[in-house]
Amino acid sequence: MGWIVLTVIFTIIFWLGIGLWLWGKAAKNATDAPSNEYSSEKASFTRWVGLGTAAAAVGVWLLVSLAFMVHTVGQREVAIVYNFSGTIAGKKDPGVVQTWPWQHVKKENVGIQHNEWDFGQANSAVSKDQQKIFAKLAVNYQIDSANVVDLYDRVGPAWKAIIIEARVPQVFKEITATFNTPRITEERAELREQTRTRLIAELEQYDIKVIDVFITNLGFSDQYSQSIEEKQKQVQDALRAQAKVAQVEAEARQRVAEAEGEAKSNVARARGEATANRLRQRSLTPLLVKLEAIKALNPNVEVIICPPQSVCIPNTGIIPNPGGN
Fold it and tell me: I need a surface site. Which of 134, 140, 232, 302 has the fewest CB within 10 A?
């Protein structure tokens, strides 16, 4: 469109210059008459001004046309070529490309693009049990460079607003509406995967490839969050009570075990003493009794003389009877 307008302007300037040149030429011929007051110098000047104007208009028009014909397309871009009528004439790949001067191009990004949606208080999603769901949804996607002309033919250059910005939040809200609120908390990965699968199915028909989907800052209303905190506190209190009961039971079992161990020890000790007494009884003699008595009363004694047929006790003052009476 711009080239057409400039062409019209330069065409007018060109013909104005030609008109000045013709008028100056006619004035030069008229200066040969004696009664004409227009000088030959002025006629020549007018003629050259007109010729220069026409030539300058042609030169500038050629430069402007060349500028409209050459375009640069970036590495992750394609150029959609439009005719003057607004119809699509094709596309150009990355590099320095040429078109007709009456054509114009619109560059489109074919690299991976990133969009985010904030589902806040005024734009929240809703769970199956009618609880508000707050989240940030991020989507990475890419359009097919080979089919970008088809996308422009079917949807137009505003495809992002028509398809991406409208469809993505709608899909996310439809998916969250199939989850109960506790399930969203427990199965966050499942929510992400279902959203991604649904978007892939709905956008591939437009040659838009979904690379990945991310769900961050997942939250709930203040009332629901408070109820979750209270429930968690109750669970923690119950766990602490269970732990206390388990500790008391363990201590009781420990005391029972200690008592059983002590009883078994006493029984074993009693059995040992009874066995030892039986063995002592079998081997007990009068001399052994005397010996034990001596050891108990005076363990340091070395020599003692006892009268016959008597119990010998140290340090008692008993005088031995040599006659044996």
Answer: 302
Find out whether 88 and 82 touch, Cβ atoms under 8 Å. yes
Instruction: For residue range 145-190, list pLDDT tens digits in order.
Output: 899 999 999 999 999 999 999 999 999 999 999 998 888 878 889 9
Q: Which of 220, 241, 275 is the last residue of a domain?
A: 220
- Measured CA to CA, the distance from residue 236 to residue 242 in angstroms comes to 10
> Tens of pLDDT along 61-72?
999 999 999 999
Are 7 and 68 spatial neighbours (Cβ–Cβ below 8 Å)? no
Q: Is residue 320 part of a domain?
A: no
Residue ranges making up the domain that contains 248 = 227-299
Cα distance between residue 288 and residue 306, in whole Å: 14
In terms of domains, do 146 and 181 share one? Answer: yes
Is there a domain that residue 323 lies in? no
CA dist 129 and 100 (Å) reads 60
Residues counted in the chain:
325
Instruction: Please count the other Cβ atoms lying within 10 Å of the Cβ belonging to residue 22.
Output: 14
Count of alpha carbons within 13 Å of 303, Cβ hemisphere only? 0
